[in-house]
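FAQ: What does the model actually see?

It sees only this:
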Amino acid sequence: MTRHIGIVACSSEGAALCYRTICLEGSKFLGRHAHPEVTMHNYPLSEYMKYIEADDWRGVADLMLSSAEKLAKVGADFVICPDNTIHQAFDLVVKRSPLPWLHIAEEVAKEAASKGFKRVGILGTRYLVESNVYPEKLKPMGIGYILPEAEERERINEIIFEELVNGVFLEKSRKYFVGVIERLKGRGCDAVVLGCTEIPLIVTPEISPLPTLDSTRILARAALKKAVEND
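And it is asked to produce this:
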């Protein structure tokens, strides 16, 4: 028996990549064409953005909790959320959730520690990068972090919300990300967190000047491991 994975989705492209990773890599644990049972629930991104833009994280938490409750009713055993930004509401959700959750930044921090990284750059939406989501998980692991400059944060935020979440991947935007990562490398980073679940769709390990910590796939793989473990 494997555990039933619930996915609380926010933006479609990141959630789709997470779901696809679980399904394709499930065979490593379970055999050909096999993967754990997966159910996803998604309120429109527009609903989330109303609360995010108003800095209303309790409103965000209510949406996440509603999704978790729906997933519990259809039999999910635990929940993941392949969206870094809305993890700012995580603590407001888990206290009331009917199901346990994995935390995306915690899984990324564990991966960074296992690979011996000492200082990482953090890419993502402006809301995420300027929050404590990653710092509070990296610091206990003894991992430092550096943020892109303010102008870079604004441009990355624009690319994410105007292009990536809409399935638009432009070469000029790809080059912009590579430039930001190159500058983070010059400031002393030894890896970069792709802390928006769409960024791995435009920044691949082959083109990145630094090793990448792909938050989407790291979370999906952590969910797979939890789904098949025997405890």
